[in-house]
Each structure stands twice: as structure tokens, then as C-alpha cells.
Amino acid sequence: MKKQLIVYVKDPNNKKVVTSALESGVFALLLTEPESAKVKQLARVKTIAPDGDYKLGEDFVIVEIKGKQDEERAAELLKQGKNVIVKTTDWTIIPLENLLAQGDNVYAWVRNAEEAKTAITILEKGVKGVVLDTEDVNEIKAAGEAINLAGENVKLEVARIKRVKPLGMCDRVCIDTCSNMTRGEGALVGNSSAGMFLVHAETESNPYVAARPFRVNAGAVHMYVKLPGGRTKYLSEIESGDEIMIYNYKGEGKIVCVGRAKVEKRPMLLIEAETKEGKRVSAILQNAETIRLTRPDGTPVSVVELKEGDEVLAYTEEPGRHFGMKVKESIVEK
Hints:
By secondary structure, the protein is α/β, with parallel strands linked by helices. It is built from 6 helices and 22 strands. The protein has 2 domains: about 5-150, Alpha-Beta Barrel (TIM Barrel); about 155-325, Endonuclease - Pi-scei, Chain A, domain 1 (Beta Complex). The chain has helices spanning about 15-25, 35-40, 70-80, 95-100, 115-120, 135-150; strands at about 5-10, 30, 45-50, 55, 60-65, 85-90, 105-110, 130, 155-175, 185-190, 195-200, 215-220, 225, 230-235, 245-250, 255-275, 280-285, 290-295, 300, 310-315, 320, 325. The protein starts with a strand and ends in an 8-residue tail after the last strand.
């Protein structure tokens, strides 16, 4: 579910704040006074206010957490089906964690984009949205970008394996992330940004190798990997502190941080496939049992077991990239 950005407007005549909020994909503006008409003169936007589209105190309730009694009140409001905006005197995630365990309609009152990023990932599922309390337009835009990237999804397609060809030794990149993944999750990589396989994380164990659920053995150094915001990067450029996208077999995405990227020489395989629409997908992956693609039902399949006609998940788009950004141009990649 897409997270919601709400911007607290102290001055309804502040056009810069209202405009920045709109440009950042705001769900609604929060006003503590019945002044919805003023901001609606500036733009068509939903409001949470005493006279708003959502009634403050009825549809949305602000609870300032000063002690356990306040937390218990917020929990009771959640049980009543209210949207609860949690405000703390010194920003902390503990009350949010406690309340998220009791209901989904939890919103966090935050002061900047970094706090917003933290709030939307608490306990993995995160809060339903954030109320941003700032008049800094750069912070509003940064928070909007963070919210928009949360749950960045793609449409995955079924591709049939056409060829698996052993290659010699190549430099390959193994990405160790700072997050554990589960079965059905992995990274999108490919020889071309126009066609990528969902390479499964190393969540599976066998008698010889333990599971490494934080790892995606991503492939040859020249290949692309999908990043947040629709961008890509060469695997050779990935380093500690970068962010990459991880997707499950349904195409639902999340942002994870890279802990390290290891480049080592390994025997490789060229894997080629084709979608039902005739789009070509290819990748060069390590020739090892632990390297897996993803079947349409989310189960992993080892690259050494692949045969012509097997179905795996892929992502395709029109070709054309400039420094990792999507561009419209004529291009042929072979």
C-alpha cells in the first residue's frame, strides 16, 4: 500500500509550502484551524481540518505521547477505527512500534525527510503515513520523494528460457545487503536495462552451503541493476552505502542498503529468454547451484537446472539510458 504524505500548514497563505506539498504528491494538508477555504483558493487539495474534507478530531486524531496513558489512549482510538497521528515531544520510534502492533492507521508526526524515511520502514511495514511539520520546501520535496519510493512496484512478466550457454571465467559482483530477504525476493539485473531477470536472493540452504538471505549474487560486472526512482547502475559501480531495489515475485518493491559488493572471478553462464510479446531478456550469471532465478509462483530455480522452455520472471521496458536515467532514443543492444 502506498504511504501517505500529509503536510502541516501553519500559515494557509504560505503559497510556497502549499505548492511544494502538491508537487511532492501530498495526500492532504493538515490545518488546526478551520481555514480549509484559504488553501483551496491556492490549489485543489484535500484537507484535514475542523472544516476539512477529513474532520480533525473525528476522522483524524492527534495524540501527543507524554506517557503510557497517552499511548493507551492512542491504542483505544485505533481500535475505534480512527486515524491516529502520533506526536512525541522528542522524536522516538518506540511508541510507534507499540501502536503499529495494535493497528494499521498510525501516522507519525515528523520534522524532516530523514524522520519520514525511518517512520515508513518501522517494523518493516511502517506507518500508514507521515505528517511533516516544516516550512522548508527542500525537506518537503525530499520527504515526498521518500514516500513515493516506498513500495515502488513493477510489472513482472513471464519469460521462457531459450538458451543457457557456459562461458569462461568472468568478474562477477555479489551484493550483500543490510536486509534479510525471504523466498520469492531478489534483485532485477540484466545485460540490458530493457530486459532484466529477477535474480533470487540466497535464501535457500543445502547440505554444502548455508543460506545467505541478505545476499544477491547479481552477475557480471557490466550488467545493470535496478535502483530506486526508476534508475539503474552498472553492477561494477555498486558500493557500500548505495541503495538498490528488491522485488518479490508479485513485483512489489522495497529499498535496501548495500553493505558491501564483492567482485570475484567465477565461471559464468549466458542465460537468454523471451517474453510472450517477443521481448528478449539476457544475463550473465555465475555457474553455480546457489545462483537462482525466480519462477512465476515465487519459487527459486537454480541456473544449473534451467532448460529450454522453463518459465522465469523478468522485467522489460523500452531501451535507452543515459547515466542510469531513462531516456527516449533509438538504440539496439545485442
